[in-house]
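Please, structure for the following, as tokens.
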Amino acid sequence: MGLLLKLLVLTSLISTSILAQPDLPTPLPLVIWHGLGDNYQAEGLQSVAELAARVNPGTFVHNVRLDDDASSDRTATFFGNTTLQIEKVCNDIFAHPILSLAPAINALGFSQGGQFLRAYIERCNDPPVRNLVTFGSQHNGIAGFRNCAATDWVCKAAIGLLKSNTWSEFVQARVVPAQYYRDPAELEAYLEHSNFLADINNERFVKNQMYKENLMSLEKFAMFMFQEDKTVIPKETAWFAEVNMTTGNVTWLQDRDIYREDWLGLKTMNEQGKLDFILTDGGHMHLTDELLNQTFEKYFSPPRKEGVDMVLEL
């Protein structure tokens, strides 16, 4: 074959190869739900969103909000019916002009936002979540109360109501932390009156199979626990563990009925390698750029598409 003909064939093959290459991978949208006392416009959340887009260029980030007014959104972290709040978020995401068109989304939950995103997955999951990452979340509830800042009257009002009559219908329908309060010493009252956690953890006699199926559809569920967490009581709730508040004895997830009887599919997921339990340094919500970078790379990077290798012999 003459040199000119070889060059023409090579040019044709290279052009065909370029045209045949798949598009560059596009990251899934990322939905972030903030924690108690925060709001969707907080500077820290904006920084997290910017970091997510730097680690995985092209990432569309949506911060969950319960009200467009930042102050009202913060108040809604203390006061509101979580069932109605989650229903609103389900509807908002389903109707969102970008999120609704995505084949799937990733989810990042900070503190109580973690169990609320899990509730989104269990109760609606449309669009479906691929990977869920939670930091210091209360997946098995709280058995103690956080301290409020001296002038944080919204926080003090909520905790005051929670302490006064945790299991009343009034408090369970209005005080957000009360709806994931769970003290093993008050288990009977919890199962009867809990407006939120007992349901999404499938702890009642009648189990919701859809909750289990939806959660098991995740590719990865990563749970971060902060080693020096003094805000969440007990900190081990981040890993679905139960703590006896009198003795301090910890019953880890794998030793609990919720796991052994697979009420939520956690046992199956663990056996499939879908669960990651990660212990990180620092107090509650102590997040470094290094930790977030590693997290975004591991759990929110788009699947890599393999190119076509060609070897030409002239």
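Strands lie at 30-33, 61-63, 105-110, 129-135, 220-226, 242-243, 250-251, 275-280. The CA atoms of residues 241 and 256 lie 8 Å apart.
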